[in-house]
């Protein structure tokens, strides 16, 4: 028979398969290449926070005559702490270095103590375009702080009474690149509550018809302006780098959390503090699931919330995965816990709470969830679908980056 025209696409002779070992080697090679590129991708995708700019390390407050102050330098415990840690690292003997666990914490933060507190409590308020919601929240905060902890500059006697090392309080409003009048509103609030002993009270979510208002001493409300928007995580972390308090709480500017539950957070934190004084108290809305506030939310929002909880359970280490409400914007840290958490923060967006809790867990800091009052407040800037997708992605990147050593505590 004549040879067919062209070439034969069906092999007429049996084709010999490569040996199994060669297939396995090829497969292994493919996986290694995939792993390599995934690792490179993770390095590129994992967020690295930008360094604070010069003006962001300064604050403005209201002078005794009611005028806004010039920009003043913010005290910054983390700069001093980092410098001391670096010196300790240099001094470390090579032998000691070898004994460190792989990917370990470098010089243990406990070797480098955080500078002493100046005040009993620091309240960090991240605020992004909050001109409408901020004043009500500040009103409730000041009212409670004033009644509970005395004037912002309460003296040593007050500290002794409380068994604390410092007395008084401060509020750090961190405007996150706001483009509205957030900063002016904060300063207006500070001015009216500083100049008058009995300022006109502003309604808040928990006090729609307030009858009294707290007076604030000069310098107790400090306003920090980030030059460009970073996200809630960036704003909270920035504020906490400059906190002077023995306890540091962050609270959302919308006043959704009942500020007067702060006392519960402080007692909760004290109850879990270790011998170094480290502890974290997490405001929790878990007891409200099924309540009107949560049921009233859209079905989509509740579905996304449950999916996110499932992801959290699967992806986070043990203690963090047991926290029922990781996202509540009302969390308190004792000062000695800060150096184990704040210097190692990377997340700038909504997922930052999870990183804080994971870092606390990595450092064996005990955490306690405390049930708090919470109200849905209109004006949320959370985009339910996009921000949920962003959070799921952020969580995956965050978990992988910490697990694979892209992020370290060196
Ligand atoms: N949306 C948004 N909020 C920011 C940002 N930076 C800081 N924040 C503050 O983060 C806090 C929480 O914002 P909300 O819009 O109330 O979002 P949320 O509390 O997580 O969501 P809700 O449960 O819907 O209220 C507020 O104090 C915001 O001002 C940012 O870049 N975007
Ligand atoms: Mg809110």
UniProtKB/TrEMBL annotation:
Region described as Disordered: 87-109, 193-216
Q: Does the keyword Transmembrane helix apply?
A: yes
Q: What class of enzyme is it?
A: transferase
Q: Which domain of life is it from?
A: Eukaryota
Protein name, entry field: dolichyl-phosphate beta-glucosyltransferase
Q: Which organism is it from?
A: Massariosphaeria phaeospora
Record InterPro entries: DPG_synthase, Glyco_trans_2-like, Nucleotide-diphossugar_trans
Describe the family membership recorded for this protein in Swiss-Prot or TrEMBL: Belongs to the glycosyltransferase 2 family.
| Pfam families in the record | Glycos_transf_2
| Residue span, Glycosyltransferase 2-like domain | 122-191, 219-268
Transmembrane regions listed in the UniProt entry: 20-45
> Pathway it belongs to?
Protein modification; protein glycosylation
Report a single Gene Ontology molecular function. dolichyl-phosphate beta-glucosyltransferase activity
List locations, semicolon-separated. Endoplasmic reticulum membrane
Q: What keywords does the record list, in alphabetical order?
A: Endoplasmic reticulum, Glycosyltransferase, Membrane, Signal-anchor, Transferase, Transmembrane, Transmembrane helix
The record's section on PANTHER family has: DOLICHYL-PHOSPHATE BETA-GLUCOSYLTRANSFERASE, GLYCOSYL TRANSFERASE
Q: Which reaction does it catalyse?
A: a di-trans,poly-cis-dolichyl phosphate + UDP-alpha-D-glucose = a di-trans,poly-cis-dolichyl beta-D-glucosyl phosphate + UDP
- Membrane topology label: Single-pass membrane protein
Q: Which GO terms describe its cellular component?
A: endoplasmic reticulum membrane
């Amino acid at each position: 028979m004549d040879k067919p025209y062209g070439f034969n696409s069906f092999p007429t002779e049996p084709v010999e398969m490569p040996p199994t070992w060669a297939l396995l080697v090829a497969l292994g090679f493919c996986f290694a290449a995939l792993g390599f590129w995934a690792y490179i991708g993770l390095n590129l995708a994992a967020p690295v926070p930008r360094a604070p700019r010069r003006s962001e390390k300064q604050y403005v407050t209201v002078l005794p005559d009611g005028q806004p102050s010039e920009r003043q330098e913010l005290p910054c415990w983390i700069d001093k702490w980092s410098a001391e840690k670096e010196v300790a690292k240099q001094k470390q003997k090579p032998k000691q270095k070898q004994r460190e666990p792989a990917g370990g914490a470098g010089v243990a933060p406990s070797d480098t103590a955080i500078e002493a507190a100046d005040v009993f409590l620091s309240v960090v308020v991240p605020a992004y375009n909050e001109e409408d919601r901020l004043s009500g929240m500040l009103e409730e905060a000041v009212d409670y702080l004033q009644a509970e902890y005395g004037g912002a500059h309460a003296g040593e006697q007050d500290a002794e009474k409380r068994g604390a090392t410092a007395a008084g309080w401060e509020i750090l409003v961190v405007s996150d690149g706001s483009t509205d009048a957030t900063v002016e509103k904060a300063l207006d609030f500070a001015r009216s509550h500083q100049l008058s002993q009995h300022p006109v009270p502003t309604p808040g979510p928990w006090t729609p018809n307030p009858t009294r208002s707290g007076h604030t001493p000069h310098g107790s409300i400090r306003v920090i302006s980030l030059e460009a928007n970073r996200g809630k995580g960036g704003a909270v972390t920035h504020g906490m780098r400059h906190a002077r308090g023995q306890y540091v709480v962050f609270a959302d500017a919308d006043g959704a959390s009942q500020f007067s539950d702060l006392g519960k957070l402080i007692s909760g934190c004290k109850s879990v503090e270790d011998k170094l004084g480290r502890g974290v108290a997490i405001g929790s809305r878990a007891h409200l699931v099924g309540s009107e506030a949560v049921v009233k939310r859209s079905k989509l929002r509740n579905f996304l919330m449950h999916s996110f909880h499932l992801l959290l359970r699967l992806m986070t280490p043990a203690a963090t995965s047991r926290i029922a409400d990781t996202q509540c914007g009302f969390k308190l840290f004792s000062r000695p816990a800060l150096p184990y958490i704040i210097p190692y923060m990377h997340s700038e967006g909504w997922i930052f709470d999870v990183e804080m809790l994971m870092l606390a867990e990595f450092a064996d800091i005990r955490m306690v969830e405390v049930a708090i009052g919470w109200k849905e407040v209109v004006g949320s800037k959370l985009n339910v679908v996009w921000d949920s997708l962003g959070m799921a992605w952020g969580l995956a990147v965050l978990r992988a980056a910490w697990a694979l050593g892209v992020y370290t505590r060196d």
